[in-house]
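Exercise: predict the structure of this protein bound to copper (II) ion.
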Amino acid sequence: MSRRAALAAVLALTTGVTLAGCSTDSGEPELKVVGAFMPQPVSDMAAGFLVVQNSGSTADRLTSVTSPLSDDVTIHETKNRQMREVESFEVPAGGELDLERGGNHIMFMKLKKQPQQGEKVSVELHFEKADPITVDLPVKETTHNPKKQ
Ligand code: CU
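Solution:
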């Protein structure tokens, strides 16, 4: 099979899968972001935390995050106290994706400026299915942890 034919076959396949998925899905993901914050950074790196709630009947995935604060924003999981970049996080249907201290988080490298407590950092969350969501992360004290209050 030529390269072109192979590509066409792949395209037909993926398109078919997408269409089949659409016709059988009972709904779209319905996403809402709550509890967002950024601990005040102490270096040129920062972390962001938030919860994505999905009240829809279709699962989605958080695939990337962008922000004016940094051109190098990635999503990380923490396993055995080590963090590791991941491709995406699932946002389960009727469930939520938790990005929280000690666990999954948004990672900002090479900050363009160091945000101070009381300021806000804008981020845009990109999903596999749902439209992007823009949310402001209020900058909290460095040790802030809502679960420990
Ligand atoms: Cu990290």
